[in-house]
Amino acid sequence: MAWRHAFRLNSIRAGIILGVLVAVEVLPRSGLVSQTVLAPSSRIFGALWIAISSGEVVPHLIRTLEEIAASLALAIVVGIPLGLILWRTPRVARVLEPFMVAMYATPLILMYPLLLAVLGLGSAPVIFLSAILGTVPIALNTTVAFSGIRDTMYKLARAFNCSRWQTYYKVLFPAATVLVFAGIRMGVVYTTIGVISMEFIMTDKGIGFLARYYYTYFKTPEMYAYIIIVMLVAAVVNTVVERLERRIRSEMA
Amino acid sequence: MSLAQRESAFASKSPVAASQSGDGLIVPLGMAGVVLAFFVLWFIVSLFFGYFVPSPLSALEKLYAGFSVGWIIAPALSTARIILISFLIALVIGFGFGLFFGLNKFWREVLEPMVVSIYVLPKIVLFPLFLLMFGLGMRSLIGLAAVSALFPILMNVAAAIREMNPVYEKVGRSFNIGMRGMILKVYTPAIALPLITGLRVALSLCFISTVLGEMVASDMGLGQELFRSYSILDVPKMYGIMLLLFAAAFIINMVPWVIEKRLRNIIG
Questions:
Q1: A240 lies within 8 A of chain B by CB
Q2: Which of B5, B16, B46, B206 fits a disulfide with A93 by CB distance 3.0 to 4.6 angstroms?
Q3: What is the ipTM of this complex?
Q4: Beta carbons within 8 Å of B247's beta carbon, 6+ residues apart
Q5: Which residue in A84, A69, A110, A86 sits closest to A195, CA to CA?
Q6: Positive or negative, the Cα torsion across B89, B93, B96, B102?
Q7: pLDDT tens, position by position, A57-112
Q8: Measured between alpha carbons, how far is A83 from A91 in angstroms, rounded to an integer?
Q9: Is A111:A129 a contact under the CB 8 Å cutoff?
Q10: Which residues, numbered 101 to 160 in chain B, qualify as contacts with chain A under a Cβ-Cβ cut-off of 8 Å?
Q11: Is residue B224 predicted with pLDDT exceeding 80?
Q12: pLDDT at B24 over 80
């Protein structure tokens, strides 16, 4: 019975998508919407096909994924220790808390043109700034994770006469893993958004760059094709991380 | 919506140790100290990297000139207006659809993957669509900011309605107050805390999206002013405007956050 429900859901979704595709085909071709604003579905998919089959998308996709991976790695390496330090010094954490929460709201990305001037055009400013954007949620979540460890865990470690190192390694870290990984997931989200936004603003390579490039030259079908590619990449990255988080949660929570 | 539930659950969790009554003046003093330390650090860095990092005094000077001479007022007002309008639009659409998805299990299940895939998309990529439709003016910026900001509201409202105590709804229905009554008197108060969190995130997103959009393609506004000062390499002016923007973002985020904290203490 469950599959019948799933079948109904998916057929409605398919219907909606089909409806949208038809509308996107008909509206521009009929002249109701200018073809500069909305390209017909057939041309969008044509451009998408060309982009993929000709391999044009590949070097840019690799570049984008590299930037996301590098900034995420940096964010984790800096963020987790930072979160741990904040956890160990609650007073400092209380003072810094409003600032760190405000970091979510600050348009740090405005520093991008400045960083371009300092670090030059290329991956460096993108990775640097995205790493900062990703560090904030990771650090905050690490602090929450370790602050929320139940007292029984500490008593357990004492009961087994654990050394300090053992307490951390065998008891505290595993207890905190779930929430720390939730922070890493948020770090991935913010890093991805940062990388793609910065590529869109100004860079030399990457799928965000291509979306902007085709907009600049009014090549609307190609632009939509790359918007779809960006959407797919973002969705895939998010799904992968979410699955990973779910597995970790089920194994360790 | 599992993603939204977790996001809103995080947002409402207090990030660090709860403030204790023994704190007293330490936190505000500490915060002032952090701000001071920031300016001192900035000054020290400016001594070494003179060109890229001008002294904070020159930046503040430029900012003051902006207000006294007045070149900053018109763009600031323009940006503020766009933020306000887009926030209202995002509020209406986000709250409306959030209620719909929260109450309507069927449509929520059907549309969840699609909503989530738009949620994870960096909305700046959609900016060209608005530019093509509306040109360089206010409307494309409003469109971009509204689209960016409506998702946090939508997700938080939908998740909160789902987790709402079903008794509230039954009580409301037993009084026969009609849909309008339900929304005003039952749903909204029930989801007050996640709603404010969502509104706070949405307001910040409006702010960031508007300024970013202005920087990318616009003919007015603070973001454009920032970009112009960048292109003529007036670095102190750049920093002055950035300082103003960061301060404004901080205040815009802090006011709802304080309200949230108070509310959380009251509601729990």
A1: no
A2: B16
A3: 0.83
A4: none
A5: A69
A6: negative
A7: 888 999 999 999 999 999 999 999 999 998 888 888 888 888 888 888 888 888 88
A8: 13
A9: yes
A10: 109-111, 113-114, 116-118, 120-122, 124-129, 131-133
A11: yes
A12: no
- Phi/psi at B55 (5° precision): -65, 145
Which amino acid is located at A213 in the chain?
Answer: Y
Amino acid at A100: M
Q: In the numeric block, which tokens belong to residue A39?
A: 């390209």
Interface size A-B, in CB pairs within 8 Å, comes to: 163
Amino acid at site B62: K
Report whether pLDDT(A139) > 60: yes
**Distance, CA of B164 to CA of B158 (rounded, Å):** 10
Sign of the Cα pseudo-torsion (A109, A113, A114, A117, in order): positive
Q: How far apart are CA B82 and CA A165, in angstroms?
A: 54
Q: How many CB atoms lie within 10 A of CB B222?
A: 27
Those residues with Cβ within 8 angstroms of residue B100's Cβ, 6 or more apart along the chain or in another chain: B107
pLDDT at B146 over 90: yes
Do A93 and A80 meet the contact criterion of CB atoms below 8 Å apart? no
Option in B17, B124, B129 nearest A200 (CB)? B124
Instruction: Measure the CA–CA gap between B44 and B52, rounded to whole angstroms.
Output: 13
- pLDDT of B2 above 70: no
